[in-house]
Amino acid sequence: MTYVDGFVLPVPKDKMDAYKEVAARACQIWMDHGALSYVECVGDDTPYGEVTSFPRSVLAKEDEVVVFSWITYPSREVRDAVNAKVMADPRMQAEMADMPFDGKRLIWGGFNLLLQN
Question: In this structure, which CATH number among 1.10.3720.10, 3.40.1350.10, 1.25.40.10, 3.30.70.100 belongs to the domain 3-95+106-111?
């Protein structure tokens, strides 16, 4: 059954070009190690809610935009193996040295697929 890793993170607006470059390289690394798909989306209609919202979830600042991303795998077991390979990949080590966002406010989790059309 398809397994999904989901991510929500704040990226400074003035670092979006740098983020896009990092995301493109990360995409290649994940795909090289067996991910089925890799998607990055930039918030366009993400109002700051009174109780909950995407911006509130990552404590987004005025000069930041929310990025919502996901990676799919054939199963949780494949995901675990792929992520182990990604984290050991020297290309990923280089990427992690200078991320254009605050990694402390990144939210991530693994999800079992419930419904897909």
Answer: 3.30.70.100
Residue 96 has pLDDT above 90, yes or no: no
Locate the domains of the chain by residue range.
3-95+106-111
Q: What is the mean pLDDT of residues 74-94?
A: 95
Please provide the DSSP assignment of 58-73 as one string.
TT--TTEEEEEEEEEE
79-97 burial string, b = 16+ CB within 10 Å, else e? beebbeebeeeeebeebee
Give tens-digit pLDDT for 21-74: 999 999 999 999 999 999 999 999 999 999 999 999 999 999 999 999 999 999
